[in-house]
Amino acid sequence: MAETKTVIEQAYSAFNRRDIGDALALMAEDVSWPRASEGGKVIGKEEIRAYWTRQWSEFDPHVEPLAITEADGGRFHVRVHQVVKSLAGELLADGEVLHIFTLHGGLIAAMDLGEEADASAGPSAAFAHRS
Fold first, then answer.
1. Looking at residue 44, what DSSP letter applies?
2. Which residues, at least 6 apart from 97, have a Cβ–Cβ distance to it below 8 Å?
3. Among 85, 104, 121, 124, which is 20 to 30 Å from 55 by CA?
4. What is the pLDDT along the chain (131 residues), one digit of tens a residue?
5. Which DSSP string corresponds to 5-43?
6. Where are the domains of the chain?
7. How many CB atoms lie within 10 A of CB 55?
8. Which residues contact 118 (CB under 8 A, 6 or more apart)?
9. Matching Gene3D superfamilies, A to Z (predicted)?
10. Where do runs of H (alpha helix) occur along 18-58?
């Protein structure tokens, strides 16, 4: 669990620094990731790179892990404090969300949004306000 916690914390840190390379280095090649600001999912590191680049051109999200707990099936629940601002600095969302990680071989294989069961759903409520 200690190694998994470190990987997850490093991924959040890299995301918050906007260091896509460092974040992707912690992920499997075929990683599955939710498009919280657009809806749906992306698969693979290059799709995540393109998604995050688009997201950061529209929003300024910051996510801070508060608690990491092991769940059934080798998954990890991460309670996160999420703050989303417009590029002009307007607060769009400030609250806690649940992220669910699956790791394989010490790398992040998938991340899912805990509050949204339907992966094909539209954008997360935090991103409902377009800048």
1. S
2. 79, 80, 82, 113, 114, 115, 124, 126
3. 104
4. 779 999 999 999 999 999 999 999 999 999 999 998 889 999 999 999 999 999 999 999 999 999 999 998 889 999 999 999 999 999 999 999 999 999 999 999 999 999 644 444 455 555 555 44
5. HHHHHHHHHHHHHT-HHHHHTTEEEEEEEE-TTTSSEEE
6. 2-127
7. 17
8. none
9. 3.10.450.50
10. 20-24, 45-58
